[in-house]
Amino acid sequence: MVFFLIQVKYALMRRTRHTRGCQSFPMLLKNISDGMVKGRLKTKRWRIIPDSRTNRKQNMTSEKPALPAYLDNIRIILTRTSHPANIGSAARAMKTMGLHKLTIVAPNLMATPMTENPPVFDPEHPQSFKLPEESFILASGAADVLENATIAASLDEALADTTIACALTSRRREITAPLQTPRDLVPELLQAANRGEKVTLVFGNETFGLSIEEVQACNRLMTINGNPDYFSLNLAQAVQVVCYEIFSQTDSPMTHLQQEDHAATHEQIKGMVAHMESVMNDIGFFNRRNGERLMRRMQSLFGRANTQTEDIDILRGFFNTVSHRIHKKD
């Protein structure tokens, strides 16, 4: 029963209100049940149709900044990965941070509730290996990263054209390369990528990490510093941390996420303050107060506050409502 609910959960992740060829919920459950009887979950990839409401004009800049071209020179390598979901989640983490090059070395996939019969890797024919559906489900919108991923039989093959190969490790290693954090090492990686050199970051198996031979094949060592009493990051989480550090140091602008500034003019602020003065006078606010001095302070306050035209509209709307209520009572 637990496995059934897990499979329902993953299947529903694929289902949206706006789909082509969308199945009804009872039919979806029936297909899941039939798939379990036959020994595997049948899933169907639906193409999501954007909700028309997302196309509403928003007060944000629409032009998105281009990703730095040199990010194409950075590749993530996963060696001997065992869980199909981790491969998909790692792909999602990569694409979120602008990275698209993925190499999977000698995958050794385990059986899971969703992938009961995982594909077996053949080192003689590495490119014939096909990732299971579970990996694509966890990749979400990063299926293209998986579809374009390179499958290699050995780490040496995957590192053939690289100049900087960075091994991710959480253990003390008896080798000469200094152990550095992502923040310390990423500047060197970005400089190399910007020069056109091929840079790789190598992540090991979820249980055993990188072997001694795999670490020795690399010329840089990186570790994600953490709690010495409990240092256990999931593979995809580790990929996310490193990819974020890479992207954050590209200094890519966030202008597409920021609202457009429409600063209020002196005339607009002056008109709004006059409107405020009228309402304050109507409600008797100036009794026993120096109204002229107070309104000068209001003019100065809104002039210093980087007041936006939208702020002016909100305040004037509020003043109109107050005036309407006052005159209605009269």
Automatic annotation (TrEMBL):
CDD domains: SpoU-like_TrmJ. One of its GO terms (cellular component) is cytosol. GO terms for biological process: tRNA nucleoside ribose methylation. Its EC number is 2.1.1.-. Residues 131-244 form the tRNA/rRNA methyltransferase SpoU type domain. Keywords: Methyltransferase, S-adenosyl-L-methionine, Transferase. It is an enzyme of class 2 (transferase). One of its GO terms (molecular function) is RNA binding. Pfam families: SpoU_methylase. InterPro entries: Alpha/beta_knot_MTases, RNA_MeTrfase_TrmJ/LasT, SpoU_MeTrfase, tRNA_m1G_MTases_N. It comes from the Bacteria. Belongs to the class IV-like SAM-binding methyltransferase superfamily. RNA methyltransferase TrmH family. This is RNA methyltransferase, TrmH family, group 1. It comes from Neisseria cinerea ATCC 14685.
